[in-house]
């Protein structure tokens, strides 16, 4: 099965001599350059992680718009925007504007978010769960309001004496980008949230960790999550076929730089641990010579089940090296697996 292959950057910067991204400007400008390079190499997607109160990419829409203006074909996405921090209508405005600049290439991953750098950081952004809500409930409420706005629903009562003439009827969020509503993904950490995403017509974005719901290997649990999502989707009438992505750390060892950085670094086994009192399973990473890598990836049931693979990249090693990492997978691994 052909597979879309993109990169996912966490956008770290560190003021250290060994880092190629020592400032926020370095991280953002190099993110744009890497997206341009990935497009030239034939990759399908440039995706960026979003974290607040951290030395990482945190404000996605200026970056997505800039990438959209510098590229022509590649998908541009997030993995993921934490909806606990998001004003749903401002989110819809910014997303619509960035998507129009990019010519309709945004693929926005959103979610309830992961543990953050500060305690209840969303409170500093002006948000509080409603009475009886958890912070996860608040994130899902914000997501549903954003989906409503992205659909172009007209809901706002017009001013009878506006500054500029209004079209007839209620007003919607502008700018509206047709089709963007179908390009929203939910980052699901459990089978239940995957089904919830399917019910609401969002694509599925599954990362390198999930709730441990059976004790089975990570890739098996993730494959079952994908099946649960698709089974639930089949019960709905959304009018389009969903997409599913998984993220992996995969490094093909093809030269001395790769050997120095990654030979022997691949995690051969899954890791189990606790996040916010929830037992979670963390997927293994892959680092090997191409032939061995091909055989290992054939055994990853979730990669095989997904239509999109996002390669997590070590952005602090610089644009040239990360372009090499992407090219190595596209050239030495993907064809042998039938993905190209």
Describe this structure in words.
The chain is 36% helix and 18% strand. It has 340 residues and is of the alpha/beta class. The strands form three sheets. Strands 1-2-3-4-5-6-8-13 form an eight-stranded parallel barrel, surrounded by seven helices. Strand 10 and strand 11 form a beta hairpin. The N and C termini lie close together (9 Å). The model has no long low-confidence stretch (mean pLDDT 95).
- Helix percent reads 25-40%
Order of helices and strands: EHEHEHEHEHEEHEEHEEEHHEH
User: Which overall shape is indicated by the principal axes computed on the Cα atoms?
Assistant: globular
In the CATH hierarchy, the architecture is Alpha-Beta Barrel
Query: Can you summarize the main beta sheet?
Result: 8 strands, parallel, barrel
Instruction: Indicate the CATH class.
Output: Alpha Beta
How large is the share of residues in beta strands?
15-25%
Question: Strand sequence of the main sheet, in spatial order?
Answer: 1-2-3-4-5-6-8-13
Tell me the radius of gyration.
Answer: 20 Å
* Contiguous uncertain segments of 5+ residues: none
Structural class: alpha/beta
> How far apart are the first and last residues' alpha carbons, in Å?
9 Å
Mean pLDDT: 95
Number of helices: 10
> What name is given to the CATH topology?
TIM Barrel
Number of strands: 13
Tell me the count of domains.
1
CATH superfamily: Luciferase-like domain
């Amino acid at each position: 099965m052909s597979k879309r292959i993109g990169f996912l950057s966490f956008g770290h910067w560190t003021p250290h001599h060994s880092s190629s991204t020592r400032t926020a400007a370095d991280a953002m400008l190099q993110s744009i350059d890497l997206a341009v390079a990935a497009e030239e190499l034939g990759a399908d997607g440039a995706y960026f992680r979003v974290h607040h109160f951290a030395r990482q990419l945190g404000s996605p829409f200026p970056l997505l718009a800039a990438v959209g203006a510098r590229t022509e074909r590649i998908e541009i996405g997030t993995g993921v925007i934490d909806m606990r921090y998001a004003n749903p209508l401002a989110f819809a405005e910014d997303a619509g504007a960035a998507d129009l600049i990019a010519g309709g290439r945004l693929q926005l991953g959103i979610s309830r978010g992961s543990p953050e750098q500060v305690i209840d950081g969303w409170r500093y952004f002006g948000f509080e769960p409603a009475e009886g809500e958890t912070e996860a409930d608040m994130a899902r409420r914000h997501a549903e309001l954003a989906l409503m706005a992205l659909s172009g629903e007209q809901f706002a009562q017009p001013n009878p004496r506006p500054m500029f003439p209004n079209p007839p009827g209620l007003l919607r969020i502008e700018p509206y980008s047709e089709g963007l509503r179908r390009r929203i993904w939910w980052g699901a950490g459990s089978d239940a949230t995957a089904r919830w995403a399917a019910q609401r017509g969002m694509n599925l974005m599954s990362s390198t960790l999930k709730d441990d719901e059976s004790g089975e290997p990570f890739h098996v649990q993730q494959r079952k999550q994908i099946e649960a999502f698709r089974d639930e989707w089949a019960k709905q009438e959304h009018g389009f076929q969903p997409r599913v992505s998984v993220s992996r750390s995969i490094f093909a060892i093809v030269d001395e730089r790769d050997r120095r950085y990654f030979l022997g670094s691949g995690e051969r086994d899954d890791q189990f641990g606790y996040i916010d009192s929830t037992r979670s399973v963390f997927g293994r990473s892959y680092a090997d010579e191409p032939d061995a890598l091909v055989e290992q990836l054939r055994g990853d049931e979730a990669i095989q089940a997904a239509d999109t693979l996002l390669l997590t990249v070590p952005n602090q090693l610089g644009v040239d090296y990360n372009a090499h990492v992407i090219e190595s997978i596209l050239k030495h691994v993907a064809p042998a697996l039938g993905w190209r």
